[in-house]
């Protein structure tokens, strides 16, 4: 099972895994408990958050070479301190400030697609470049530049491909301080990202040529650590900047790629989306003010997030003994909440494996609370969820509203889960202008 999980841990789940509520097993010297019901998710992520706030050893050790003590992997007082500094950067109150850059980037990508010669296009790579451009314009300012952003995108894809998916040492009971070996490819990919972000931070903090440009990353650099009159130190600033780039680029890129794939397999939904976009926008690209008039486009995004959650596994470590339902939990147990399982649970969703955007249209019955958690839930919920939904909706309207997309003949798409859920390494599709 561990051998399979190293390549793609989605392959380890049996059909019965989707149907059960709370269950577990023992892997070497660690108990593993899977929470696959709204009640158990609420208990772990909300009611008993303090006991289950720490990410699992596998999750931490997979990201520490890249993020250090960044928000994704920290907990306790450090997490609370950093979240208060970082959360305002992508808060919903910033949407009106950020959305024009999203519209601008989506319009430019649409124009580039219209100028492409006939032939297949790697839509996964295209969405990576688009969302990287957006994160640069909204969060980092234009100081990062296309070339530097491209380096970060390529290095992160390389990092995902190389980083281990299992932490056997923790399953054997070895402590966190015991060294974990990461191959030279992992270290090189992390160093490439660090070099780019360190240069950006130096430009901001040292008053370089681009120091006058407004950006949300600059706002974060000027924010004071709670309880002090000082900003974050440079290492902390770098770690949180990389968290923002990874969260704002990778997850949205994957969501858009999956949405375009789903529409390529469902011509009725693709035509319905295009009709909605034409009726509301004509040939212009959506702005934030248009989003309430694009309910089906947003429903496509939300249904894509259900079927293909960008982070399909949320893992925690029990800081103390507990009880989840009828199951006793020992200190150190690994707790798994898997949107991949929960979003396809037959007792929660009608036709759980089918792509049905109407589930998320206004007036449709809502799923139970905590049955749908593409952005996690509880105190550690993604602070950028509103920004991500708006970005995905605007970009999908611009691209799927202007092009028919068809999967390149002979290509088979399989979900591959490493740190995030991707449709393989590439997604070759052919574009036909509408």
Automatic annotation (TrEMBL):
InterPro entries the record matches: Cyt_P450, Cyt_P450_E_grp-I, Cyt_P450_sf, Cytochrome_P450_monoxygenase
SUPFAM superfamilies: Cytochrome P450 (SSF48264)
Family: Belongs to the cytochrome P450 family.
Name listed for the protein in its UniProt record: Cytochrome P450
Lineage: Bacteria, Pseudomonadati, Pseudomonadota, Alphaproteobacteria, Acetobacterales
């Amino acid at each position: 099972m561990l051998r399979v999980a190293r390549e793609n841990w989605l392959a380890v789940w049996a059909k019965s895994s989707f149907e059960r509520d709370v269950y577990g097993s023992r892997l070497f010297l660690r108990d593993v408990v899977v929470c696959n019901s709204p009640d158990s998710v609420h208990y772990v992520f909300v009611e008993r958050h303090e006991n289950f706030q720490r990410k699992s050893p596998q999750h931490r050790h997979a990201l520490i070479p890249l993020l250090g003590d960044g928000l994704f992997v920290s907990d306790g007082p450090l997490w609370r301190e950093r979240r208060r500094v970082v959360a305002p950067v992508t808060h919903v109150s910033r949407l009106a400030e950020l959305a024009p850059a999203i519209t601008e980037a989506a319009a430019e990508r649409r124009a580039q697609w219209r100028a492409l010669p006939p032939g297949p296009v790697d839509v996964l790579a295209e969405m990576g470049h688009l969302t990287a451009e957006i994160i640069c314009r909204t969060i980092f300012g234009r100081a990062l530049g296309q070339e530097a952003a491209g380096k970060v995108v390529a290095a992160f894809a390389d990092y995902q491909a190389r980083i281990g998916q299992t932490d056997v040492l923790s399953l054997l009971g070895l402590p966190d301080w015991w060294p974990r070996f990461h191959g030279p490819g992992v270290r090189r990919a992390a160093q490439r990202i660090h070099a780019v972000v360190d240069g950006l931070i130096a430009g901001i903090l040292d008053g370089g040529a681009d120091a006058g440009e407004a950006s949300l990353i600059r706002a974060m650099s000027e924010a004071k650590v709670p309880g002090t009159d000082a900003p974050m130190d440079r290492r902390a600033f770098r770690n949180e900047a990389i968290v923002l780039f990874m969260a704002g680029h990778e997850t949205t890129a994957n969501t858009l790629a999956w949405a375009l794939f789903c529409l390529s397999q469902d011509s009725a939904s693709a035509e319905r989306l295009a009709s909605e976009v034409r009726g509301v926008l004509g040939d212009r690209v959506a702005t934030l003010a248009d989003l309430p008039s694009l309910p089906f486009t947003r429903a496509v995004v939300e249904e894509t997030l259900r079927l293909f959650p960008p982070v399909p596994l949320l893992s925690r470590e029990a800081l103390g003994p507990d009880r989840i339902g009828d199951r006793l939990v020992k200190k150190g147990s690994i707790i798994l909440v898997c949107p991949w399982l929960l979003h396809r649970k037959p007792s929660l969703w009608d036709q759980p494996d089918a792509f049905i955007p109407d589930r998320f249209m206004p007036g449709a019955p809502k799923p139970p609370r905590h049955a749908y958690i593409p952005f996690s839930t509880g105190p550690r919920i993604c602070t950028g969820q509103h920004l991500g939904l708006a970005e995905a909706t605007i970009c999908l309207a611009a691209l799927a509203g202007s092009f028919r997309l068809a999967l390149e003949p002979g290509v088979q798409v399989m979900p591959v889960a490493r740190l995030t859920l991707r449709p393989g390494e590439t997604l070759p599709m052919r574009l036909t202008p509408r």
